[in-house]
Amino acid sequence: YNYPIERTAIVTGAASARGIGRDLARRLLKAGWHVGAVDLDATDTSDITIDIDDAALRLSTARADISKEEDVEEAARHFERNLPPVLAVVNVAGISDPTPFLQTSLDRWERVLRVNLTGTFLMTRRFVPGMIERGVGRIVSLSSTAAQSGGGTYSAAAYGASKAGIEGMTRALAIEIASTGVTANAIAPAIIDTDIMGGRIDEERLPYFTSRLPVGRLGRVDEVSALIEFLIGPDAGYITGATYNINGGARIG
Ligand code: NAD
After folding, report:
1. Which of ligand 1's atoms lies nearest the C-alpha of 93?
2. Which of 40, 54, 211, 221 could bond to 23 as cystine, CB 3.0-4.6 Å?
3. Which residues, 6 or more positions from 20, have their beta carbon under 8 angstroms from its beta carbon?
4. Protein fold of 8-246
């Protein structure tokens, strides 16, 4: 049983101040992980490490566009120089897009697919071989209820297609590497209180979003990162190829 004492997680999309990636990076640092934070935007490290002992020593950041193979390679080399071997990759970075199908240009379609799906593919493919070599690893990728539901809140065809693609890729990868000690899973949140849906969900927009959620409130980033922490942890070695709903009852079954 190879789960190491020194753990490194790569978290993409960790720069967003109110986002899931930032909250996850903080949670993992608090739990003693080393974290490699990747984002298109510069990551404010002082903000992530604040009040966490030694966290500054365990956090490394890289600016990268995950949709570009050369960026992914450069970030990976940076982390391999600065952090212990990578145990987990959490693919959080993504973009939303509410453009209706009939108005979706080819450029727009390709950008959403390129970031959400190809970016997840590139990050995952870069790190899985090392995990296989060490006999242990964890991949968790962010899907969305939109993969199944047809979207409707702040997403449409391109976003739904990219997220359904992530689930399909995760299942195929999970089976392909199942015997190596590396697991691959997806999680599918409904509406989490972040800024991805065209900025903060203010009082005016709140009723529209909560009306779609049986529990009657938005999800919180810490509820998502708690699930991810479990899935990349030592007790989740028998979970692979799964997609976990975390959606306040928005979609059941
Ligand atoms: P967010 O917008 O707060 O954060 C996304 C981060 O990804 C940003 O920091 C952004 O800079 C980064 N990013 C975007 N494109 C990138 C690229 N090409 N390369 C590197 N980084 C890039 O979003 P969030 O709400 O925290 O969402 C995180 C993930 O969860 C996304 O994949 C999203 O689709 C998914 N998700 C979110 C919700 C929700 O309600 N918030 C629901 C379902 C799924």
Report:
1. 7
2. 221
3. 13, 92, 142, 189, 192, 194, 221, 224, 225
4. Rossmann fold (3.40.50)
